[in-house]
Amino acid sequence: MRKILVSTLLAAALFANNAQALDASGTPVVVTPLASRTETASGQPITLPQKNVQVLVSAYQIAPGATLPVHKHPFPRYAYVEAGTLQVTNVETGKSNTYQTGDFIIEMIGQWHQATNVGADPVKLLVIDQVEEGTRNTVLRQ
Predict the structure, then answer these.
(1) What is the pLDDT of residues 106-129, one digit of tens each?
(2) Distance from the CA of 76 to the CA of which of 53, 118, 125, 131 falls in 20 to 30 A?
(3) The model's pTM
(4) From CA 57, how far away is CA 6, in angstroms rounded?
C-alpha cells in the first residue's frame, strides 16, 4: 500500500510541471502542458453539461480563405490547432482572436461567432466537444 501511495505521489509531482516521466520499460515520456484555463475565449466561465455527458472528437480541415458560417455552441468546445492560422470573430462584440499552429482554443459558449482561415495553408484542428448525449454542439444562425 505504501509503495502504491509513494508511486502515486511521485507521478503526481512529475506531471504537475513540464515533466519527464518514465514508462513501464524505463523509457522517458515528456509531458508538456499546452493549456490550463478556467474561461472561454470571450471570458466566460467554463460550464459543463449537467447530465449524460458525451465526448465527441473530430478532425477539421479548413481550406485557405474559407470562412465558416456564423454559429454558436451550446456546450463546451475545445480545439487544438495542428496547422495553419485561424481567426475567430465574435460577431456580437466584433472582437477577434487569431490562433496559430500549437495554440489551444477554448471556444465561446452560446455566442455567435465565425472563423476564417487567414493563412496560405489549410487549418487543421483537433476538436473536442462535451455535450449532452445525443445532441449537437453547433447551431447555425438562420
Answers:
(1) 999 999 999 999 999 999 999 999
(2) 118
(3) 0.77
(4) 34
